[in-house]
Amino acid sequence: MKTLIISSSLSKNSKSLVMCMKVKSILTKMKINVEIFDVKKITLNPYHTNKSSGMEDLANKISEADNYIIAMGVHNYTINDSLKIVLDNCFHNVDGKFFGIICAAGGEKSYLSTIHLSQICMNQWKMIQLPRVLYATHNDFKNNEIISKNIIDWIDKFCEEFCLIGKKLIS
Questions:
Q1: Per-residue pLDDT for 12 more than 80?
Q2: What is the predicted pLDDT for the residue at 105?
Q3: What are the residue ranges spanned by the domains of the chain?
Q4: 34: pLDDT confidence band, cut at 50, 70 and 90?
Q5: For the domain with range 2-170, which CATH number is right: 3.30.2130.10, 3.40.50.10490, 3.40.50.1970, 3.40.50.360?
Q6: pTM summary value
Q7: pLDDT of residue 167
Q8: CB–CB of 53/89 below 8 Å?
């Protein structure tokens, strides 16, 4: 199973990227082939312009992966603009594939912010979503480290279910 984790946050202190690293560590121990693609390391161009070489590279990685974990920060109760650019420009050959969501938000009342991402992926590409969404707030971190036992347990369960369901869907 080849899994691509897409970190869409452009923040230097991205909490969602911290969770991505933890998920990658666990999935790697579960013998899953997993890679993190950090979107802040490439140039993002809007849909109506040419793709940057980094965007072409990401589009290729997305096409080659069996499934995905999409990480996002919350901006105005929806997905961030960098993630929307990635979805519009780089998501090709993803029809029917499996995905999970990692979300970091400033507060506890943004938990429905992932619904827009779910709708895009499920309606446009008929993708299948892991029902468990990893959702954490700034209170779950200290100095860019996860301090919440609840979130650590949630990450373990997310990885276990992602691996179990993901393997069944590609077999």
A1: yes
A2: 86
A3: 2-170
A4: very high
A5: 3.40.50.360
A6: 0.96
A7: 93
A8: no
pLDDT over 80 (residue 75): no
Question: What would the 3-class secondary structure string for the chain be?
Answer: CEEEEEECCCCCCCHHHHHHHHHHHHHHHCCCEEEEEEHHHCCCCCCCCCCCHHHHHHHHHHHHCCEEEEEEECECCECCHHHHHHHHHHCCCCCCCEEEEEEEECCHHHHHHHHHHHHHHHHHHCCEECCCCEEEEHHHEECCEECCHHHHHHHHHHHHHHHHHHHHHHC
Per-residue pLDDT, 48: 86
Is the CB of residue 2 less than 8 Å from the CB of residue 64?
A: yes
Residue 118 Cα distances to 31, 96, 123, angstroms? 27, 13, 8
Question: Up-side HSE of residue 25: CA atoms within 13 Å toward CB?
Answer: 9
pLDDT band at residue 77 using 50, 70 and 90 as cut-offs: confident
Token pair belonging to 49 = 């312009």
